Amino acid sequence: MLKVTIKEEDKVAIGCERYRHPHPHVQRKMEVLWLKSQGLKHKDICRVADVCPRTLRTYLLEYEKGGLDAIRQLNFYKPRSDLDELRGSLEEHFRKHPPANATQAMAEIERLTGLRRSPERVRQFMKRMGMKCRKAGAIPAKADPEKQEEFKKNS
């Protein structure tokens, strides 16, 4: 069992922030610390706070190493694309030379940067840049150019 003692000055802050902190994840951590400060056993804390024993140990070790500041930090995993680092130059290139489709954009990105990405990933990257895929309308095969010019003039 992990022996962690909660400091007296931290108990007041924990008591307030377990309900008032703006993020629910931090509220849960504070709840676990508050229950620990009340002298509950680890299995009871896990049952009451609805956390597994490993999560409980993680929260307690986090408090022991960094105090309440470490508990308040939110460190969610946010994957970053290699393309995001090159976004400025790619966006400038695509504004000047818009690709017809995602496959063409994929080939251009590979030519410019050497990074190969699937068409779906390129499509998502283009959306993050604010570009949209647009379909061009087809011209009917039996269109009469003379009648079209006459229609433009008369309408």
Structure, described:
By secondary structure, this protein is mainly α. It has 2 domains: 8-72; 82-128, no CATH class. The protein contains 9 helices and no strands. Helix 2 (24-37) runs antiparallel to helix 3, helix 2 crosses helix 4 (53-72) and helix 7 crosses helix 8 (119-128). It is elongated and about 90 Å long. The N and C termini lie far apart (86 Å). The mean pLDDT is 89.
Structure characteristics:
155 residues, mainly alpha, 2 domains, 9 helices
Query: What count of structural domains?
Result: 2
Number of strands: 0
SSE-based structural type: mainly alpha
Distance between the termini: 86 Å
Question: How can the largest sheet be summarized?
Answer: none
Strand content: under 5%
Query: What overall form do the CA principal axes indicate?
Result: elongated
- The helix tally amounts to 9
Spell out the helices and strands N to C. HHHHHHHHH
In quaternary terms, these chains amount to single chain
As residue ranges, the low-confidence spans are none
Q: Radius of gyration, rounded?
A: 29 Å
Helix content: 55-70%
Average pLDDT number = 89
